[in-house]
Amino acid sequence: QIIDAVKASGLRGRGGAAFPTGVKWSFMPRNSPVQKYLVCNSDESDRAPVMTAISCATTRMR
User: What is the DSSP string of 19-62?
Assistant: First the structure.
């Protein structure tokens, strides 16, 4: 249900390609008997690295 809600929201990644987040999350297997983790890449290679640090520090979902 969460992935469907994210897809419906139109949320896109912050990278240059602005890839749809819901589509990316849908690549993860559903109903797996093994616990899975979603990892966020917080690479600071952008010209404004402060934005990533602020976003990671203030985001409540971790």
Answer: -BHHHHHHTSPSS-SS-----------SS-HHHHHHHHHH----
